[in-house]
Amino acid sequence: MKPQIKEIGNKPDKLIFTNPSQSRESTLIVEWGKRSLSFSVFHEQDNRVLHTDILEFEKELIDFTKQDFNRFFKAHSIFGYSFEKTLCLVDTKYATLVPNDLFTTGENEEFLRFVHDLPSGNFTFPNEAILSTDYQLIYALPKLLQESLSKHFINVHYSISQVSLLNYFSKFTQLDEFFGVHFNGDELFVFCYKESHLQFYNSFPYISSEDIVYNVLNVLNELGLSNERCVVYYTGMMPEDSAHIELLNQYVKFLKPLERTNKLNYSTSVAATPSHYFIHHYASIL
Q: In sequence order, what are the residues at sequence separation of 6 or more whose Cβ sits closer than 8 angstroms to the Cβ of residue 271?
């Protein structure tokens, strides 16, 4: 069945490049989620993010066929350009942390199947180091996604969204203490750094605003941090005026959306989007 596509924000078929050669000097960042694809275009010479957008599907990525991928890429002219590099961020729940002391090359699949009941299909099982920790993060990467991206783009690289975000904070956070939450669909990622070292990281499913409040307060308490004094930064596609944020704001005195990095320039359309929405896209560039 053809995947149904719902466009969010600016249409990706709008003119992004002033001339076609700009694409060959640009990096395409695509993030494949459960039922969505978000993407950004970064022009290296200008150090500028030219465009960011998101598409949502009524069909899960794990169920995409080769024909689905072909139809999708042909449907949007932005994916017909030649890019210097394509970075694919994989947003998946099929991932696990493994301490370096236990990590053994060649056993990624065994580690992952020990903690997850993986769906049917063909996967590869990459791993990435998380900076300032002694852990590797292993994840399942669909082979059909790899084949489809390799068919349509050159110089394709892969990473997992969580690692892109965590490594960015590890490299660029100057605060002695940094507590953050990242909203990702129906999951909440909670992390805490002290002196640029990751002290805590975990994910929690949530349905209600109360679920979010419970998990954030529970982690703060576990780490011995006060909800009256600790600054809690949030990222991800969660509007500042949402019911979730409004309730959390009643329990966390200093709750702030995280500003996007000032190490990059942004087009007018990108600058107009909430600054905390796509931080992990821009983090992957740095």
A: none
In the prediction, which pLDDT does 14 show? 54
CA torsion through residues 202, 203, 206, 212, sign: positive
> Per-residue pLDDT for 214 more than 70?
yes
Query: Tens of pLDDT along 124-174?
Result: 999 999 988 899 999 999 999 999 999 999 999 999 998 988 888 888 777
Where in the chain do CATH 3.30.420.250 domains reside? 1-171
pLDDT-based confidence at 175, cuts 50/70/90?
Answer: confident
Query: What is the number of alpha carbons within 13 Å of residue 22 lying toward its C-beta?
Result: 16
In the block, tokens 């993407």 appear at 39
Cα gap 273→282, rounded to integer Å: 13
State the fold for domain 173-257. Answer: Nucleotidyltransferase; domain 5 (3.30.420)
